[in-house]
Amino acid sequence: MKVVLLLGSMLWAATTWSYSISGNVYKTDGSQADVQAACSAAPGGGTATVTIPSGTYNWADTLTINKAVTIAGETDTGVTIYNNNSSGDMIKAASGADGHVNLYWLNIVQVANNQGGVGFAISADRDDSSPYTVMIHDCKFNGSQVFSYAVQALANGIVFWNDVFIGDGTNGIGGISFVCDKYGYAGWNRPDASGSNDKSGLENSYVENCSFYDSPIACINCDDNSRVVIRDCKVSNPTISGHGQETSIYGAREWEIYDNTFTYSSSGTGPSGASYPVNMNSWVFIRGGTGVITGNSMDDIPFNKTGIMLNVFSITRGLNDGAGGTFCPLAYPAPRQTGWGWSSSSNAEWGVGDDTNANRLVGDSSPGIFGADGIGAVLDPVYIWGNSGTETTSPTYVGTQTYEPDNCQHGNQIATYLKQGRDYYVNVTKPSWTRYKYPHPLHTKFAVSTN
Predict the structure, then answer these.
(1) How far is CA 395 from the centre of its chain?
(2) Are 149 and 173 in contact (CB under 8 A)?
(3) Helix then strand then coil, % of the chain, to nearest 5
(4) Does residue 328 contact residue 358 with C-beta atoms inside 8 Å?
(5) Alpha helices in 336-433 (DSSP H)
(6) 3-class SS of residue 262
(7) Collapsing DSSP states into helix, strand and coil, what is residue 389?
(8) Is residue 95 classed as helix, strand or coil in its secondary structure?
């Protein structure tokens, strides 16, 4: 009986794990189970590489990576993985104190319907107390079949380069969603880290030399507490967007959009299969936080659409208090609004310290929790300058709008909250701002060549 059990155990092990080891390389058979087994067996510390041989694979589970390893395709174009996980993330990668997680040469096609945000092709996180992160580069994400972002970044400091993101074209999203609500209020309530103020290179996430296609609603979503740099990318018929505190708990903190090429296609067929033109409304659609938009080339979006749209939706839509309540601003400035940042001298959660400047939605008499004194919140205007292309000569190059309907019923108008020359500047250089070093040091150190 013991012999039979032992033989059965040996056969199970032999048929379950197929990876082979040569030095620091763990070569798998490409199945999700075998890749997981190799990742679990490989040492951390960034010394091991788990490879996937060229071929086409269907993954319907979650690959968990919680140590410093490299996961790579055998060649730059040979590996295609169909994401059939409809209930969670296909790859969940988190870096810790032992080193970077490095992912490259993966061609991922989204098949499972994850419209409810139940899962992503890759979900990336990091231990912010360490000098390490998750790097996703030289990959391709095809989301043309599903209304979903391909990648979710749960922390600031995630680094992308040389990736291709194809949206779903018709409905209009794809790409990366930055949702860093794990930081709580402290994540938003930290001073500026833009440009050269990022001393570690990991205070912001970086998206550089990537290509985005056919996501007219959003190819990048800058959401709760996110600090994102988008630079030297090709943006073909998508919108770079974000959320304020009206629908998110904290809203976007900082975004830097520079040296990108925005291309509008009036005819033909996109990589998503959608016929051009797709329903573009803006190149950049901002709802909170602050940032710079400079050095970009922008085609004009016809039909009087606005190239760069700045908003404060909360003044008519209401604010999300994070506890199931909704508050409405009564006076300028609205909490975490576009063109405002944070003072390092305050620990106040909402940026101010009294109840005089807000109330619940009309009909609810309970008090608000932020006021007009400005404690913590500091004016930190948006700067837009040095862009080129036909969009920059359009009368609708930069615009603002008041969200409708007016759920708050206070009659607030965007002109009170967003004033050019105060909350945002057009064709004015941001004082003392300089670009963070390019390419990102991790891009330089971990660059790979095609084979």
Answers:
(1) 30
(2) yes
(3) 10, 30, 55
(4) yes
(5) 414-417
(6) strand
(7) coil
(8) strand
Place of tokens 């194809």: 166
Are 329 and 245 contacting, i.e. CB atoms less than 8 angstroms apart? no
Strands 290-294 and 297-298, sheet pairing: unpaired
Beta-bridge partner residues of 220: 176, 240
Query: What whole-number distance in Å separates Cα of residue 371 and Cα of residue 358?
Result: 7
Per the prediction, the chain carries an average pLDDT of: 88
| Greatest C-alpha distance within the chain | 84
Q: Is the pLDDT of residue 355 over 50?
A: no
**Type of residue found at 390:** T
Give the global pTM.
0.92
The Cα 401–Cα 74 span in angstroms is 49
* Cα–Cα distance for residue pair 386/382, rounded to 1 Å: 14
| Rg of the chain on CA atoms, in Å | 23
Residue 186 makes CB contacts below 8 A (sequence gap 6+) with: none
**pLDDT reported for residue 269:** 96
Strand partners, 166: 142, 213
Q: How far is CA 279 from CA 240, 301, 399, in A?
A: 14, 10, 18
Long-range contacts of range 437-442, CB-CB < 8 Å, 24 or more positions apart? 437/201, 438/208, 438/231, 438/232, 439/161, 439/208, 439/209, 440/159, 440/161, 440/201, 440/206, 440/208, 441/201, 442/100, 442/133, 442/135, 442/159, 442/201
Least confident of 47-51, 67-71, 358-362: 358-362
3-class secondary structure, 450: coil
Tell whether the torsion through CA atoms of 142, 237, 228 and 139 is positive or negative.
positive
Q: What is the pLDDT of residue 344?
A: 65
Q: Which of 160, 92, 150 is nearest to 126 (CA)?
A: 92
Angle (CA) 172 252 89, round 5°: 55
Distance, in Å, from the CA atom of 337 to the CA atom of 311, rounded to the nearest integer, reads 8
Copy the structure tokens of residue 19.
């990876």
Sheet holding 164-166, edge to edge: 55-59, 79-83, 107-110, 140-142, 164-166, 211-213, 234-236, 261-263, 297-298
| Range 234-260 average pLDDT | 94
Strand partners, 40: none
> What pLDDT digit, counting tens, does each position of 154-179 carry?
999 999 999 999 998 887 889 999 99
